[in-house]
Amino acid sequence: MSSRRMLVAAVVILNAIAATGVASQGQPAEAQFLVELDAVVLDGDDRPVTGLRQEDFEIKEDGRNVELVTFDAVADPAEGRGTPRSIVLLLDDSGVGPGNTLPIQTIARMFVSRMAAPDEFSVVRLNNRRDEAFGDRLEALLRISEYRSDALPFFGRETVENALRGVAKVSRTLEAIEQRHKALVCIGVSAVCNVLEPSTGRGSLIWRYWVDAIGAAARANASVYSLMPNGLSTRSELSRGTISEITGGEAFRNTNDIGRVIDIVRRDTGTYYMLGYWPAASASASSKETHSIDVKVNKRGLHVRARRLRGMQAS
């Protein structure tokens, strides 16, 4: 076991013992879980920033400061001391409509061609239940060749629910890969690939699917990146409150520079910081389905990309 894994295990055990005593006094049992999240730190030119220390970060959950108890800096695997990347392509095969098979296949193959030997990479078609988030390069290329943009027609809410189920399913598969930032790159229209948080909250028919997807992505340290090939749709392209923004990913639209998109995804999954904290116990925390997260760096000119919400921890 690595020294860092031993440290994390020790922190979890010690805090779990402490939390057991707190829970017995009426505090929520959720406080027994260490929360781990990844943070990509960029400078003013969007270049990854290395060399930061634990004390350079500040985290708030639900508006309250929490103590950072574990810390690790992950370097680009190309430097020979980093962690392999984990990238999954999600192919929209219902929202884009007929006639877009070739453009999406071309983009997906560009991703495959840019993957390096250590990278873990797979392709999942959103409406193909046989596809799983694992496989080798040949399997990825086979799924791309068999992809069809109009495998199913767009059914509105039902299609959106299916997309959120797909994000949750893939995230749960990737959760077993610990202490690594993963990227889910969804290629298709925003209505499918960059779902907007329901404005009516629990009153929305897709709320439970939304919460499930956000929670699963948080536990897996997975960020959603959405790529809408130019000209596919004129549907609303909102960015605030979307699954890409909330999970710490990015939405790309109106661009034909796919090479730049691939570079950004590889950058974010190659150089980042893993931060672990013990959530502050509160009387109302046990009833919340999601918790807000705010990560900041106390250095000028730097900005952080990290997830903004997490779901309740699984027991």
Q: Can you summarize this structure?
A:
By secondary structure, this protein is of the alpha/beta class. Helices cover 30% and strands 24% of the residues.
Q: Describe it for me?
A:
The protein folds into two domains: 3-75 and 273-311, no CATH class; 86-268, 3-Layer(aba) Sandwich (Rossmann fold). The chain is built from eight helices and 13 strands. It has helices at residues 3-24, 101-113, 137-146, 157-174, 190-193, 207-220, 243-246, 258-268; strands at 35-42, 57-61, 64-66, 68-74, 86-91, 120-125, 182-187, 222-229, 251-255, 272-277, 290-297, 303-306, 309-311. A hairpin with a 2-residue loop joins strand 2 and strand 3 (64-66). The two termini are 24 Å apart. Residues 1-31 and 234-238 have low confidence and may be disordered.
